[in-house]
Write a sequence for this structure.
């Protein structure tokens, strides 16, 4: 049966509570931290050697689609009615948005150490200890909008510009691509300062704190952010039905700097060994409201 992922602003109180409770149950079981470990392991920059599947590569979108599905299935083992909601950051774009309420994601971090003090994921409430990290911090942190170095969330115009690109991705298949839908959404540029980051990357920077870097899964808002990114990929697919739905179709050959570093259409993506080709259509699993 096809289920629906809803905009978080349209969740009922009961739906918000069910989602939070399922996430907390995953945390208590230790399974949530396994998702953090997976993201850390596969966050491979394009300056490193070896296969990149999660970031700075064409498989950024299908890899995270499968990652979301794995998380959602884990939640549904706890409560079959739970789905991952999405955060449309072009609309809910301030720290006053309902997303950050005490009964859902909790609020901003406090001054000084940026520790989140409100909501179900506050360390002080005893249910959310950051135990898998690339730093030694044990509590969830946020610095919404980064007042000392201000950054804004992406706009509807930014999204429209990305959606208008008719090509999925292009060589050199990494963070330096100047065009292609994948990198316009992932958000790498050659600019400097905050202009270096756009769309997906800019959202991570705006939330800041735990949302920066490989361990960003430690902030549960990660899932709502990536559900929206996934919905944008769905919109791009619907708008460009005659375009190649994933590139490259064939892996870069020997001698190409990207040989062995990117997943082609039918290359298995670790850790699940699922091909990007298997993730191009989610219509039999879920839809977006």
């Amino acid at each position: 049966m096809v289920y629906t992922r809803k905009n978080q602003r349209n969740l009922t109180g009961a739906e918000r509570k069910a989602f939070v409770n399922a996430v907390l149950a995953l945390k208590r079981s230790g399974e949530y931290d396994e998702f953090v470990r997976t993201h850390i392991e596969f966050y491979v920059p394009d300056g490193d050697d070896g296969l990149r599947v999660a970031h700075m590569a064409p498989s950024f979108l299908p890899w995270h689609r499968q990652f979301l599905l794995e998380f959602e299935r884990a939640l549904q083992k706890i409560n079959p009615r739970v789905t991952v909601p999405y955060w449309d950051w072009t609309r809910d774009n301030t720290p006053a948005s309902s997303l950050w309420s005490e009964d859902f994601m909790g609020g901003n971090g406090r001054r000084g150490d940026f520790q989140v003090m409100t909501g179900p994921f506050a360390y002080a409430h005893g249910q959310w200890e950051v135990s898998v990290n690339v730093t030694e911090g044990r509590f969830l942190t946020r610095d919404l909008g980064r007042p000392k170095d201000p950054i804004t969330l992406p706009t509807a115009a930014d999204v429209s510009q990305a959606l208008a690109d008719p090509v999925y991705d292009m060589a050199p298949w990494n963070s330096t691509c100047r065009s292609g839908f994948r990198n316009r959404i992932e958000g790498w540029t050659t600019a400097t300062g905050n202009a270096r980051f756009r769309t997906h990357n800019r959202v991570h920077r705006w939330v800041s704190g735990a949302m920066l870097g490989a361990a960003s899964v430690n902030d549960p808002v990660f899932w709502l952010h990536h559900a929206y990114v996934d919905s944008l990929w769905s919109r791009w697919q619907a708008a460009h039905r005659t375009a190649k739905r994933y590139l490259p179709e064939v892996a870069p050959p020997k001698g190409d700097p990207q040989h062995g570093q990117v997943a082609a259409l039918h290359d298995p993506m670790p850790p699940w060994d699922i091909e990007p080709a298997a993730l191009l259509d989610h219509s039999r699993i879920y839809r977006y409201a």
Observations:
- The chain has one domain: 3-105+146-288.
- The domain at 3-105+146-288 is CATH 1.10.1280.10 (di-copper center containing domain from catechol oxidase).
